[in-house]
Amino acid sequence: MEQGRDWTWFGIDISGKSLKEAERRHKTQQEDKKKQIQKIYLMETKADSDSTLFRSRLPQDLYFDFVSMQFMANLLFLLNKLLKICLKLSNQGIVLMTITDANVLVRKMREFTIKDYEGNYVYSKNQYFSLKFKNLQFPKNKPFGYQYYFYLEDSVGFKEDNQIKYLPEYLTELQAFEQKAKEYNLEIIENLNFIEFFEKYKQKHSNLLKIMVKPPSDD
């Protein structure tokens, strides 16, 4: 953050628990950093809610300098809604996205999946997560709406009577994404797989890693 500038922070999530955690982190920040964020707004919403509802709650003259979308951008590929990103983005604003690497995901699915009794392709190596595709063929002329189903214990989906209840996700086809971004004057500055990103920045931002990862106990 720029020193000497006041910031307003908005947190929007389908999980009220995540929002409470964000508020807790803000309260426990160092005083000099906490004072920079003058206002903090938390909004719980549904995954399928209309974005016009969200926009109606924002001041008309408010634009964002920085937008962070962690594992949310793939939902834009349901109905080709990339325009929604830049409606409230300031000039020279930055959007940080974390998405599933579609190429790696599809390759893993084709190499290691088994079929369930309904004919779906399922990838599951342990009890904590599972992926399911209805098919593994993706027409190149239709880059949007590639749906699959995902389960991650305590985070995405749930179990009922020991049966997994998946939630839908969508593959992000990067060439189509980049082309669509250009139409709205968005430039992709950097595109890295997580492993590539980690290797590139692990030394520069090692202090952040120390904050996030608790060292092993001597006990």
TrEMBL record:
Transmembrane spans: none
InterPro entries in UniProt: mRNA_G-N7_MeTrfase_dom, RG7MT1
GO CC terms in record: nucleus
Alphabetized UniProt keyword annotations: Methyltransferase, mRNA capping, mRNA processing, RNA-binding, S-adenosyl-L-methionine, Transferase
GO molecular function: mRNA 5'-cap (guanine-N7-)-methyltransferase activity; RNA binding
Domain MRNA cap 0 methyltransferase: 1-219
Pfam family, one: mRNA_G-N7_MeTrfase
Domain of life: Eukaryota
PANTHER family: MRNA CAP GUANINE-N7 METHYLTRANSFERASE, MRNA GUANINE-7- METHYLTRANSFERASE
Record-given protein name: mRNA cap 0 methyltransferase domain-containing protein
Organism: Paramecium pentaurelia
Lineage: Eukaryota, Sar, Alveolata, Ciliophora, Intramacronucleata
